[in-house]
Specification:
The chain is of the alpha/beta class and about 270 residues long. The chain is about 35% helix and about 25% strand. It is globular, with a radius of gyration of 18 Å.
């Protein structure tokens, strides 16, 4: 499948999630059928309930970490949230940067922007805004933001090299990013990767950890820090559906797996 086709699939599925939430009938990260088609892989490993700025209506359960916990945000910072969805991480960031800061969310799904805007209007912040746009070609000038955050989004971007290059471009000198994402150790069985619904569920779009880190350093980011690396458990029914008995043994006894990672890098 071509990159543009993959982006369209992601856009359609996440648009469905946003539209369902607008109808007060929220669905899981890949629509009514569950996070990965008829499967159920829980991506989020952290809870927001005790996080300042958390807004329940803005939390659609689509993340795999809490990047704002490690982003070293300061009062007055201008923060960019990539793939801002319904606005949850933007509102958490706003609680930290305060009235003198600014938070901008970018998402390429119109229904998500609509949902985020509704949430924003309920809260009434005047220094948070949401823009429709593509992470691979951001509608921002150079050197604009102090900090970039993102939560389980970059792995869904087909051209990750371009995405990180754009992050480098829009960060101010001395700025940094902190993202939570999904990476792989070893190679996922082909049957996993061939399921496009797994891609939309933040799994098959992930790449090998070393490749991910390589993209970051090749882009020019320095002082790269991995704050957290947690393995994501794959339910037995998922493994049994996709793998033969011998493949199950090989997969479970090997060092391969799916991991959530929270990582920072500095311009």
């Amino acid at each position: 499948m071509k990159a543009e086709d993959l982006k369209l699939v992601v856009q359609e599925k996440y648009g469905e999630i946003a539209k369902q939430s607008l109808l007060l009938n929220p669905v899981s990260c890949c629509g009514n059928s569950g996070c990965c088609g008829d499967l159920d892989i829980k991506m989020i490993g952290d809870e927001y309930q005790n996080i300042s700025g958390h807004e329940q209506d803005a939390d659609l359960g689509l993340g795999c970490g809490i990047p704002t916990n490690y982003a070293e945000l300061k009062a007055g910072d201008h923060v960019l949230d990539l793939g801002s969805g319904a606005g949850n991480d933007c509102f958490v960031a706003r609680a930290i940067v305060g009235e003198n800061g600014k938070v901008t969310g970018i998402d390429f799904t119109e229904a998500m922007i609509e949902k985020a805007t509704i949430n924003l209007n309920k809260i009434g912040y005047d220094n948070v805004d949401f823009m429709l746009g593509d992470i691979e070609n951001m509608p921002f000038p150079d050197n604009r933001f102090d900090v970039i955050v993102s939560n389980c989004v970059l792995n869904l971007v087909p051209d990750k090299e371009k995405a990180f290059a754009e992050m480098m471009r829009v960060l101010r000198p001395g700025g940094h990013f902190c993202v939570s994402d999904v990476v792989l150790k070893g190679t996922l069985p082909e049957k996993f990767r061939n399921d496009i619904l797994m891609y939309v569920g933040c799994v098959s779009g992930a790449i090998i950890e070393s490749e991910y880190l390589g993209i970051i350093t090749r882009t020019g980011f320095k002082n790269v820090i991995t704050h957290k690396l947690n393995q994501i458990a794959i339910p037995d029914e998922v493994i049994q559906k996709y793998l033969s008995k011998s493949e199950q043994i090989e997969f479970l006894n090997g060092d391969r797996g799916i991991f959530s990672i929270t990582i920072s890098g500095y311009k």
